[in-house]
Amino acid sequence: MPTPEVIEAHLYSIHVLATKTEALSDANKPKTLKKFDIPDSMELRELKYLNNTKGLVQYSPGFRTMKGTLELDVVKDSPILTTIKTAYAARKPIWVVCVENPDGAAGTQGVRYEGVIGSYPMTLEAGTLVSVSIEFGINEFEPI
């Protein structure tokens, strides 16, 4: 029985870059991306006023936290794995680019995230792929 052809069906084009100015290419685009999630939460500061007739605590927005997970399977000698390992060991940032609309005008194509790797667990398994799941703390983001 012949093996069925694999069809790439990602909603977004995701690229893992070693530098902010690195060009997007197939070499830095994981073929087996499992998940890239970016929970965005805002700290709420409680404000308590004695003259508040309803006795309700008021809230004010504080600092914003964006820390997510990047999960993918890569070939052992992949440039993406090298980028992740090198950045983690050197405690340097990496950039993850999410292209949502490649044909859109500049500033509407997607988002470039700069972040640091908080954890780097690598699952060693039999076969040709290495499973990687990293904690990704975002320091900055900008539209592309």
Write the layout of secondary structure elements.
Elements: E1 13-17, E2 32-37, E3 40-47, E4 58-75, H1 79-90, E5 94-99, E6 110-119, E7 122-123, E8 129-143
Antiparallel strand pairs: 1-5, 2-4, 3-4, 4-8, 5-6, 6-8, 7-8
Protein name: Phage tail protein
Description:
With 144 residues, the chain is mainly beta. The protein has one domain: Elongation Factor Tu (Ef-tu), domain 3. It has 1 helix and 8 strands. The longest helix is centred in the middle third of the chain and has 12 residues, at 79-90. The model has no long low-confidence stretch (mean pLDDT 88). It comes from Cystobacter fuscus (strain ATCC 25194 / DSM 2262 / NBRC 100088 / M29). This is Phage tail protein.
Strand-residue proportion: over 45%
Q: What is the CATH architecture term?
A: Beta Barrel
How many beta-strand segments? Answer: 8
Number of domains: 1
Q: How far do the termini sit from each other?
A: 44 Å
Give the proportion of residues in helices.
under 10%
User: Which class best fits the helix and strand makeup?
Assistant: mainly beta
Low-confidence blocks of residues = none
* Biggest beta-sheet profile: 8 strands, antiparallel
Give Rg in angstroms.
Answer: 20 Å
CATH topology: Elongation Factor Tu (Ef-tu), domain 3
Q: What's the tally of helices?
A: 1
The run of helices and strands is EEEEHEEEE
Kindly report the average pLDDT value.
88
CATH class: Mainly Beta
What would you call the shape? Answer: elongated
Protein name: Phage tail protein
Organism: Cystobacter fuscus (strain ATCC 25194 / DSM 2262 / NBRC 100088 / M29)
